[in-house]
Amino acid sequence: MQIHHLFQGFRHTWVLFLLLFLGSSSKNVHPYYVSVTEIRSDFRQQSLNISCRMFTDDLQDALYKKYQYRTELSKKDGLADAYLQRYIAERLQITVAGKPVTFQLIGYEIEEEATWCYLEATSFPGTGPVQVHNKLLYDYLPEQTNLVHFYRDGERSSYKLVNPEATAYFY
């Protein structure tokens, strides 16, 4: 099954990115710094699927500034997955009922000027309140805003985190 089909429900927030691009006059410059992280839980199936969407140029810059790893993510050079896994794991932490969730990058794809990173939980602590600590791109973009959408039993709850605010709670 293709990654794209696993996360097709995430497409509705793509409209936000299209609106952001309308004001952009250059491919490498955009007026807003926004990421979207969507987390879909299915406690009965004990699964947690995560999708992080960031502007590709910002993500590439962050990988270079943090690890001195220069890449064009669209070229899939073989090292990108390891650096993306490391970068996201260092800046995105999720706990369920106070227990940390471990997740693994299962792939990424480029769409327009954004990169989608897809992750799956490799540990699932069960039910309870969810805490999301999201500092994606905060180190390098003081203007960064991270939107977090959490889906539980088909219902969506959302947080808007503006740097330096980094923690969202879902009960």
Kindly give the count of domains.
1
User: How are the strands of the largest sheet arranged?
Assistant: 5-6-2-1-8-9
Tell me the overall shape.
globular
Report the uncertain regions: 1-27
**What average pLDDT do the residues reach?**
85
Helix content: 10-25%
Keywords for this structure?
171 residues; alpha+beta; six-stranded mixed beta sheet; four-stranded antiparallel beta sheet; 4 helices; globular; disordered N terminus
Please, could you describe this protein's structure?
There is one protein chain. The chain is α+β, with helices and mostly antiparallel strands and 171 residues long. The chain has one domain (33-170). Helices cover 22% and strands 40% of the residues. It has helices at 3-6, 14-22, 56-67, 80-91, and strands at residues 34-42, 47-55, 92-96, 99-101, 103-111, 114-121, 130-134, 145-152, 155-162, 167-170. The strands form two sheets. It has a six-stranded mixed sheet. A hairpin with a 2-residue loop joins strand 8 (145-152) and strand 9. The protein is globular. The relative contact order is 0.20. The model is unreliable at 1-27 (pLDDT under 50).
